[in-house]
Amino acid sequence: MFVFALPCPPQARQLILQYGLTLSDLDRHPKIDLAIDGADEVDADLNLIKGGGGCLTQEKIVAGYASRFIVIADFRKDSKNLGDQWHKGIPIEVIPMAYVPVSRAVSQKFGGVVELRMAVNKAGPVVTDNGNFILDWKFDRIHKWSEVNTAIKMIPGNMSGIQQACTHPCPS
């Protein structure tokens, strides 16, 4: 059995090298047997909020090319409804030129407040490894997340932090 590690954030790449694992990428291994990742929140229907750390598009790409996707989350991430535990909103990665129209479209269609995530240790917005901005959508009610996810995907210029790849809970 061979194990290749495909990191999403640069920090993970450093850990892979530090611990002597074999580093790879989607160019060399476009088919992934197993992807493992965390989540910011998991609701009772196994909908996930991901991307709070700002790497949501790359994480979604890796999960999408994996035959199996396992989410590891402890009791602090478990909730009845999305938003019960994670109060920072659903991250939406957006192409910089589209952040204003995407913000408006999300808030008009679904309510709540959409904010451009601002950097803490530098001036301006957070910029992802892809060169994009992050919007945080603080929703004000429970939604049908599969419909919201599909509708947000249809807005040009973004990738949402809602994920529904997790379908089977692990035993406690």
UniProtKB/TrEMBL annotation:
Its EC number is 5.3.1.6. The keyword Isomerase applies. Pfam families: Rib_5-P_isom_A. Gene3D superfamilies: 3.30.70.260, 3.40.50.1360. One of its GO terms (biological process) is pentose-phosphate shunt, non-oxidative branch. GO terms for molecular function: ribose-5-phosphate isomerase activity. One of its GO terms (cellular component) is cytoplasm. The keyword Nucleotide-binding does not apply. Keywords: Isomerase. Pathway: Carbohydrate degradation; pentose phosphate pathway; D-ribose 5-phosphate from D-ribulose 5-phosphate (non-oxidative stage): step 1/1. Belongs to the ribose 5-phosphate isomerase family. This is ribose-5-phosphate isomerase. The lineage of its organism: Eukaryota, Metazoa, Chordata, Craniata, Vertebrata.
